[in-house]
Amino acid sequence: MSKMYTPWTEYMEPFKIKGNLYFVGCVAASSHLIATSEGLILLDTGYPQNLYMVIDGIYKLGFSPYDIKYIIHSHGHYDHLGGTKALVELTGAKTFIGAGDEDYANGKLDLTWAKELGYDAYHEAFEPDFILHDGDKITLGEVEMEFAAAPGHTPGTIAIFFNITDEGKEYKVAMHGGVGFNSMSLEFLDKYGLCHDCRQKFVDAIDRIIDRPVDIFIGNHVWNNDTKGKYQKILDGDKDAFVDPAEWKRFLQYQKEEMLKWIAEGK
């Protein structure tokens, strides 16, 4: 067994990104909050071991976790849905996950990456309320979210697109739900008897979404979009630290090129 990861050691102060979009933790795996007139939307719950940080972050920003209406998962790995079962029991929020990852969430498939992170098993299984497909949209209050299938990292990885408003101006926000190559390595795929075509699906999905206009790119890990560095810029007075209309395409182009290298090198 690998050395157990300790996500509770990776606290990060919650903060407002822009408008009604907030970061609520953590360095180990990101969770984001969107405030609407009809309640809160939470993107990913993180590890079960640092759920208390996410809840605390929501309170610190002046919100209540009891107002969470929707929990949307970027994909079905332990570090993004591990806290969901407990949070649903606390709040009654409805849960969403991309088609293909529902059996990760409910425990029918042992592919949540819990064991690879050093935990003996995935004990936090739950049955998602809604399964998201390519092109689906949901609305809460004035916020409409659109989802695009972005398989590869997992079969049900999704990209998320929505608008936020800040000082009367709208900004287009996007997240790619999973770009880690760890679950697309030939070693991992062969270990679990999975098809190798997920790698090409990853590239093809990027091609479908790379040219969408995006003002603010958020990551489901802080290193995807330099969340920590941009937070420091906000502290230094740059209220537009997260606004970069070129970042989405730049990030995805890099991921695509790196995966094509992996495919060519047979990794």
How helix-rich are the residues, as a percent range?
A: 25-40%
Radius of gyration, whole Å:
17 Å
> Unreliable runs, pLDDT <50, ≥5 residues?
none
Number of helices: 8
Q: Could you say which overall geometry the principal axes of the C-alpha atoms support?
A: globular
Report how far the terminal alpha carbons are from each other: 22 Å
| Share in β-strands | 15-25%
CATH H-level name... which superfamily?
Answer: Ribonuclease Z/Hydroxyacylglutathione hydrolase-like
Total count of strands: 12
CATH architecture: 4-Layer Sandwich
The description of the largest β-sheet is: 7 strands, mixed
Mean pLDDT equals 96
Order of helices and strands: EEEEHEHHEHEEEEEHHEHH
What report would you give on this structure?
The chain is α/β, with parallel strands linked by helices. The two termini are 22 Å apart. The chain has one domain: Ribonuclease Z/Hydroxyacylglutathione hydrolase-like (Metallo-beta-lactamase, Chain A). Strands 1-2-3-4-5-6-7 form a 7-stranded mixed beta sheet. It has 8 helices and 12 strands. It is 27% helix and 24% strand.
Considering the chains and any ligands shown, give keywords for the structure:
267 residues, alpha/beta, Metallo-beta-lactamase, Chain A, 7-stranded mixed β-sheet, 5-stranded mixed β-sheet, 12 strands
